[in-house]
């Protein structure tokens, strides 16, 4: 039987925490960490391997692009770090050159894996990866608004004193400042949320600005996104057909096309099977188009072949 394998490119806070999360949850048989700073990757791997007597066995090593061969999923977390108060889109110019070289490094060794992009700004980086790699669209996906939706559900749950796992709510659009909440669909057990307008505004603002708050407090976000990436990997490896808020290329999605945005998607062994065409209000549709237009404007400044 073929061994399952995940490669993580980028051993920064997100990459290392994701590797540790995958290891703790015994997601794969083989786990590889690649970083331009090879000593950092080696150190993380040594640290994890020293805990192996307490875990189910996983082969973990620091590798090179050659180790992408045979991987089921390649997670890309590499890139310049977001500075305190810096919008994700400001990372764009600093990350494009880094990202271009990563895609070129992967392709000689693996054209069959699912590329899971977490580098910010994730929607633009995912679109760029799709254009550069020329892989089937279902196999180039971004982490999208999965974490944003989790934050949204958590904060609603806090307001209502209800387990966030029982809250059904969506954040769609950009993983960033132009994202939008779908209050029209938010519910608990099918019941409309009993929240005032002030509560709703507070919940959404804290959802949208969560990364800024965390970065200001401790320099980076990594625990929750690692859990989100693990959840995506589980859906892929187990062929779940799960509904997750991922960034994928849209085709006439409420009138939006040719841009990667976070929307609810069916996720299985092949990646994104398809987006879910959920009903939204006219006001929500206008905000979705604004989010798409913002990213399209930024994408138009890039040289993507």
Give a structural overview.
This protein is α/β, with parallel strands linked by helices and 305 residues long. The chain folds into two domains: 5-142, NAD(P)-binding Rossmann-like Domain (Rossmann fold), CATH 3.40.50.720; 146-299, L-2-Hydroxyisocaproate Dehydrogenase, Chain A, domain 2 (Alpha-Beta Complex), CATH 3.90.110.10. It is 39% helix and 19% strand. The protein is built from nine helices and 14 strands. The chain has helices spanning 13-24, 38-49, 92-106, 122-133, 146-160, 197-208, 210-218, 223-237, 282-299; strands at 5-9, 30-34, 59-62, 73-76, 114-117, 140-142, 167-168, 171-172, 180-181, 187-188, 191-192, 242-249, 260-268, 271-275. A six-stranded parallel sheet has the order 3-2-1-4-5-6, sandwiched between helices. The chain has a three-stranded antiparallel sheet with strand order 7-10-11, with helices on one face. A hairpin with a 7-residue loop joins β8 and β9 (180-181). The radius of gyration is 19 Å and the shape is globular. The termini are far apart. The mean pLDDT is 94.
